[in-house]
């Protein structure tokens, strides 16, 4: 049994019902095994779970969109997804199975417009293979353009959110448009690879920030629990990642305490517009046409 399958089984046993994955994570086979195992044990039924996956950037052509979904469904051993997201608003050229096709060290982008991609997503929802559709890593301009041209508005925008990246405008915009926000990297991705650590703009690991630590001490909680509660209290869904069973369990224990308004203000005061996920794709997303 892989550590991913073990972690998902532990999470389900601890009460988790929302599992977030993606074509590009290369873990859907193991998640599928975990879901199957827990269903066979009678711990869960399919309708108890909320399973999310994402369309990868190399599959933005209309004929490739259902292919990407089919692969995810097959690997997950499911008939449908509860939510399917466009992973990024930028397309990449399709070159075999490469996730990040490059030539001379440069990422090969495709000219697929995310509006056309969205038409394919709308068709998937009509087919019943996905219950809801949404986006990920879209900025406000991209959301506005999508809302103006779509038939079905996105149910969700999944973005990086934490006290170093508060994104107040995004939160207010999504609320005003009835788009649910899902926060990834709520701890600032402490396990990220060393090449993504930028000392000058990254003075602390968020989990070790003294402001967070003080609030945690006051409430007799862990820093991780405070950071999760920060989102939940704002009505934002949050998807922490852990493969350690004690952390998986600890992360569930955030519904029996509240942060005071002064705590929330102190956490928001840490904002430095700091993005950990400066993946090679995000800069491309910023250069997209919005008109």
UniProtKB/TrEMBL annotation:
CDD domains per the UniProt record, alphabetical: AKR_AKR1-5-like
Catalytic activity: a primary alcohol + NADP(+) = an aldehyde + NADPH + H(+); S-nitroso-CoA + NADPH + H(+) = sulfinamide-CoA + NADP(+); S-nitrosoglutathione + NADPH + H(+) = S-(hydroxysulfenamide)glutathione + NADP(+)
Purpose of the protein: Catalyzes the NADPH-dependent reduction of a wide variety of carbonyl-containing compounds to their corresponding alcohols. Displays enzymatic activity towards endogenous metabolites such as aromatic and aliphatic aldehydes, ketones, monosaccharides and bile acids. Acts as an aldehyde-detoxification enzyme. Also acts as an inhibitor of protein S-nitrosylation by mediating degradation of S-nitroso-coenzyme A (S-nitroso-CoA), a cofactor required to S-nitrosylate proteins. Also acts as a S-nitroso-glutathione reductase by catalyzing the NADPH-dependent reduction of S-nitrosoglutathione.
Location within or outside the cell: Apical cell membrane
GO cellular component labels: apical plasma membrane
Residues annotated as site: Lowers pKa of active site Tyr: 54
Known EC number: 1.1.1.2
Annotated protein name in UniProt: alcohol dehydrogenase (NADP(+))
Residues bound to substrate: 87
Species whose genome carries this gene: Lates calcarifer (Barramundi)
């Amino acid at each position: 049994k892989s550590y991913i399958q073990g972690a998902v089984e532990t999470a389900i046993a601890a009460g988790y019902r929302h599992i977030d994955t993606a074509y590009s994570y290369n873990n859907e086979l193991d998640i599928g095994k975990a879901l199957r195992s827990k269903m066979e044990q009678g711990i869960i039924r399919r309708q108890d779970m909320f399973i999310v996956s994402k369309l990868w950037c190399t599959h933005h052509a209309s004929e490739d969109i259902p292919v990407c979904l089919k692969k995810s469904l097959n690997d997950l051993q499911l008939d449908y997804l509860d939510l399917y997201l466009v992973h990024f608003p930028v397309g990449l050229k399709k070159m075999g199975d490469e996730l990040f096709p490059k030539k001379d060290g440069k990422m090969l982008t495709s000219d697929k417009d995310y509006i056309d991609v969205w038409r394919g997503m709308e068709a998937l929802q009509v087919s019943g293979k996905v219950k809801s559709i949404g986006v990920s890593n879209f900025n406000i301009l991209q959301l506005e353009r999508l809302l103006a041209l779509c038939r079905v508005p996105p149910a969700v925008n999944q973005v990086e959110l934490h006290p170093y990246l508060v994104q107040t405008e995004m939160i207010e915009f999504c609320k005003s448009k009835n788009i649910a926000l899902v926060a990834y990297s709520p701890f600032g991705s402490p396990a990220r690879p060393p090449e993504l650590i930028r000392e000058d703009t990254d003075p602390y690991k968020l989990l070790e920030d003294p402001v967070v630590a003080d609030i945690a001490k006051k409430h007799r909680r862990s820093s991780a629990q405070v950071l999760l509660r920060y989102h939940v209290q704002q009505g934002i869904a949050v998807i922490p990642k852990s493969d350690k069973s004690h952390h998986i369990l600890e992360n569930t224990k955030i519904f029996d305490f509240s942060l005071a308004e002064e705590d929330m203000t102190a956490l928001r005061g840490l904002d430095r517009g700091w993005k950990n996920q400066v993946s090679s794709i995000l800069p491309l997303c910023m250069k997209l046409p919005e008109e």
